[in-house]
From TrEMBL:
Pfam families: ABC2_membrane_4. Keywords: Membrane, Transmembrane, Transmembrane helix. The keyword Transmembrane applies. This is ABC transporter permease. The chain crosses the membrane at residues 17-36, 56-82, 103-134, 154-181, 188-206, 250-273. The keyword Membrane applies.
Amino acid sequence: MTALLHSEWERLWKRKIVWLFLIAIPFIIIATAKYYMGRNLVVPLGNPEHTTAENFAVMAMIEQLIVVFNVVALILLTLSFTEEYRSGQLRMMMLRAYSSTQIFWAKWMAFALMMALFFVVYLLTAVAAGYILFPSAPQQVLFYYDHAVPNGDMILYTLGYYGMAYATIVGMASVFIGIGVVSRSSTAAIGLGMGFLLCSLGYPLIFDLSNRVLGLGLPVMLKYLSLSEIQFSGIAVMMSDAEALKHLHAGIWMICVIAGYTAVLMTVSRLIFTKSDRWI
């Protein structure tokens, strides 16, 4: 299994998208920094949206998680699962005495490790850019906090935020794998994956509108059935220290949602992927 995982890891490194994304990270960070430098001109100090050297890494992840990281995950998984199956590359691996289950989990672990690498590189680059491009502040004002936090606590908050962001990518990836194993082509897999992202983005808007206009009175936490909404605002709510939000148990709810997506879709995807008639 270790040899298979190593093989899958090497196969990912041969993908141009991996190198393009790694090379693009500094440019993405710089473009994001320029955006927030402009925002700082109109957002006063003391507002959670005001960017400082200490909170830039979090702000940079907020800005790029939904689009950049989701799209990179979608493309990588489509190339790894859909394209390799349709091109016959996976059949060649089956001839080397590896089972379809072993191949499935090796691909999944190689992808998970690659995305972890992306997150680490992005975090380190964002931290460096933050201290170079933004002024420091003695304390930080965070979203959904009743009080400012010292910079020492901001380090732990940043690490926690990136950890939860990575967890949402794992949940989103389980959806993309499910789409990938049933798609007839890479184009279809990417199209369906983008369609899911759009639906996931649209669901909270429809939920809020229906709840308000129709007076349904549904619990507000139901909008976090959307993985993209967890990525957009849910992580900050989950990590909130505000008294008004503690009764919602947001962290437990969102972790259960992410775990539910991952467990159900990975189980179904593995069953589909390992069906014997897929290899005939």
